[in-house]
Amino acid sequence: MSELYIDADACPVRDEAFRVAFRLGLHVHVVSNGARGILLPENPLVHRVIVSEGADVADDWIADRITADDVCVTQDIPLAARCLEKGARALTSKGHLWTAANIGGALAGRAVAEHLRSTGGRTGGPAGMTPADRSNFLSALDTALRAAMRGPVPVMKLPPGGF
């Protein structure tokens, strides 16, 4: 049975994700590291997971449990790559579906942006959410969850030495 994992600390589309998951009757794991103030619906399909503080602790929890039948909503590109390695599907809050074809370039771009920031450069942040973004997310999540319910995708193979 497919499940939905939400990297919840900075996720602006939790309510939309709940709506889609509830319609499909899927369990939702809402994973955060200290955001106790996140309001969740009273529903037996929702599982709040609060992990300890620390870099990548929530990511590790998700990556350790996600399977090829599942979907993850995350803005974190390395977490998305880890999900793809397990055969799961991953998408952003704006509905961008990560695949083996596009994750490598995203990881490389992230590394370049981190280097620029570490040397004093400014890279800017993501644009705010628009109604069109929310609509794209709803459609992409519905598509990804329905595909996951039909069966897993081939597991992404990393090139020697990783990305």
From TrEMBL:
This is UPF0178 protein C8P66_12524. It comes from the Bacteria. The lineage of its organism: Bacteria, Pseudomonadati, Pseudomonadota, Alphaproteobacteria, Acetobacterales. Coiled coil: none annotated. Belongs to the UPF0178 family.
